[in-house]
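Hello everyone,

My group is preparing for a crystallization screen and wants a predicted model to guide construct design. The compound we'll soak is zinc ion. Before spending weeks at the bench, it would help to have a computed complex in hand. I've included the protein sequence and the ligand's SMILES below. Output in structure-token form would be ideal because that's what our pipeline reads.
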Amino acid sequence: MKRHSHLISVAFMVVACLIAAREYYINYQIDVSLGQADNVPAEEQNLNHSNQTSPMLIGCSNSNEELEEQYQTVEIRKGDTLGSLLAKFDISKQDIESLNKSLKGHLNPRDLKPGQAFSIQYKKDQQGVQLLGAEFKPSLEYTVVCERNEKGQFKTQKNTVELKTVLKRVDGRINASFYSAALKLGIPAKVVKEAIKALSYSVNFQHGIKSGDPFELLYEQYEDAQGNSIKPGNLKYISVVAKGQLHRIYSYAPAGNCAGYYNARGESVIRSLLQTPIDSSRMRVTSGFGSRVHPIKGFRRDHKGVDFGAPHGTAVMAAGDGVVLKAGYFGDYGNYVRIRHAGGYETVYAHLSKIASGTRIGASVKQGQVIGNVGATGLATGPHLHHEVILKNVHVNPQSVKALPTTHLATKDIQKFNKFKQEIETQIVGLPMKNQLASNDLNDAVKNKIA
Ligand SMILES: [Zn+2]
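Reply:
Good plan to model first. Here are the tokens for the complex, ready for your pipeline.
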């Protein structure tokens, strides 16, 4: 009787497998005959075969799946390599090698970061696992797709995600600082830093602005087709009222020139050396110019510059266009850079942890160019930038450097600039205020709650 029911269950399985995977009929027959040849007692065979979760049945349905092409999303974790991840799917070394070869020039393996994912397509058959293709999204701006062509070779293509530029308008009031107020309103840090740079020639961020001063910004934002913000673009316009005075600055590119910052009269805002040759969001003045007690030597002596305390590694910028006079280690100054500018000015940057590779004696540098990083080399109690300004061999207070001659837009550019200004005005009037939108949302929320 037991033997009989066993035969029935085997017959049932054969039918089930025939339906599930006709192609595997032959293989299955071999499996069954192997199973029957085993010395396993009949009862156990019976139990196994009538059980829906028996290994053989699973094997059967899996065989069916293995015939098909499969898609898999692969998550990248720390320490993974493309090869190690693909090997987990039994993809051959040869396929991994061919894929890597094809990806070369389109995808830098270093662009694949932990937390990201990519997708693969592969096929399993008697010969093993064959990789059919892979798709990577190393950034929000493009995808890298690798597929086999008719000849079976991998072909890789880089597809750029179409981005559109959208103008954003934000207005607000300064609270603790302009930087934190702007960030709180959702303005990207890159744009805020640009705005600070644009304003830094005419507005003193330490003493010139106060809580409650209004500001307005217009900047570009790149969005994908779904309207997701992908990356910030450039600052177009910034206005701020400081000490009752309205400052308006436009980012404008005269014909055939790079964009620069101009005031409403079409004058370049760059009229002096940068007063703060360091990322101003990360620094504080730790020691001013003039007489002080030296923090290490203990006695009173003149401090020939200004110290900016900032985290180790903070970027240090050239205060103005110029030529590098010295770049290297210089006693108590540690790593030291000295630059000569127009009008008889020279500037010094000391205690740097690192001098930028392009900052060599005789090299030309641009205002705002990174020349090194904050450190504590030489005689220093902690990471800070020691900054000196020297006018005709006399140390002067960097905070009170006289303005350099004003540069105007050329007459032929002024008309275009005035038109550009009008466009900005129109855009400001036409665009909703982000801040106001937010408060309207808030009002709606309150109303809804009451209703
Ligand atoms: Zn100093």
